[in-house]
Structure formats: C-alpha cells, structure tokens
Amino acid sequence: MLQPYLQAGIPEAGCDEAGRGCLAGPVFAAAVILPPDFFHHKLNDSKQLSEKSRYELRTYILENALAYAIGIYSAPEIDQVNILNASIFSMHRALEQLNLKPEHIIIDGNRFKPFHKIPFQTIIKGDSKYSSIAAASILAKTYRDDFMLQIHEEYPQYGWKKNKGYPTLDHRVAIMKYGITPYHRKSFRLLDNQLKLEF
To answer: What's the pLDDT tens digit per position in 11-26?
Structure first.
C-alpha cells in the first residue's frame, strides 16, 4: 500500500526519472504534487505495470494531480554533464515548471542536489512506497516512450519502438551495422566488446 505523502499538510512534490540506462534518447523526469486523498487501486512503480495500465494511470494522474511537469535532458546534454547529473537536473527542470510551488520534495533513489533551498528527502525504491513518486515514474516513463516512438519513425533500424533506446542485443547490433545517430549518448559504452557481427 503506497503512502500518500512523507510530510503532511504541505504541497509535496514526488520526483522520478526514466531512461537513465539507455544508449539513446533523452532522460525524462517528472515532478508531481497530488492531493492528500489521491487514490487509484493500480498505482505502483511504473516498472511493475503493463503498458496499458501505465497509460490508463497517466490519464488519471493528469486529471487529478494538483500540479505536474516534465523535465528533459537530451543526449548531447547528458554527454556534457554525465547521466547522474542529467537525471537530477531533469528533475530540477520539472520542478521549475510546476504551477504550484512545493514546500517539500521526495525523490526516488539516493542522490539529489538542493533545489531552491526547498527541503528534500531521497527514498530508495520510493516509486513503490509513495504515491507522488509512483505517479512521477509513470509520467516520466510514458512521455519518454512517446518520444522514442516518435524518433523511431526517423531511425526505424534501431528498433526504438520496441527497445525504447535500452541496450538490447538488437539495438547494439544496429549500432555496429549503421553507426550512431544524434540521439545516441556518445559518453556511454555503445558497443559490447563481446559482440561480433557476422555478415
């Protein structure tokens, strides 16, 4: 059972990101402030849900959240600042856009950098403990998936429609065969040394 908040009685934003372990595409983050009585029986960490449930929940979250926003860090930006910083800065970008200022922030994971002196708490596996972080994980994941489906049309040979930019075998084989795109993260190890391509 997810907890509605960590700090009661104040607007509390939950933050999470998606796409950190990918070879291609941006990292997406979401910040969500939910009403204290927010409830949906399916709400959980986005990784535990089917794609259909994620999109169903996204609609419900968008309709019922007090505030929500998405922050994005592109592949070239990730290469400049590294993926850990990009994950944190994309959360900052999301928080920046909220139309309700949070008085407390809870973040999935164990790393964060202060944002405008607002008190915060990092929570390991927070997306399976707190409703606002679970909601943020769903928004970050679904909006990132939408983006990957879009750029799949530009570069269909990499299979992003299916692998969403993650380091699957078919994705790595496509990189060996076709090289990289502007959406690939050059600072990541894009090829597996074990991989050999037989033509």
So the answer is: 999 999 999 999 999 9
CA dist 61 and 55 (Å) reads 10
Single-letter amino acid code for the residue at 7: Q
Q: Are 43 and 131 in contact (CB under 8 A)?
A: yes
Task: Give CA–CA dist 58/71, Å, rounded.
Answer: 16
pTM of the model: 0.94
Can you list the domains of the chain with their CATH numbers? Answer: 12-178 (3.30.420.10)
User: pLDDT tens digit string along 111-137?
Assistant: 999 999 999 999 999 999 999 999 999
Going from the C-alpha of 42 to that of each of 65, 77, 96, the distances in angstroms are 16, 34, 28
C-alpha 117: how far from its chain's center?
Answer: 23
Task: Report the alpha-carbon distance of residue 144 to residue 151 in Å, rounded.
Answer: 11
Q: What is the dihedral of CA 37, 38, 43, 46, to 10 degrees?
A: -130
Q: Which two tokens stand for residue 1?
A: 């059972």
Nearest to 149 by CA among 157, 159, 139, 140: 159
At 183, is the secondary structure helix, strand, or coil?
A: coil
Q: Write the CA distances from 107 to 31, 44, 72, 150, 182, integer angstroms.
A: 9, 15, 16, 28, 30
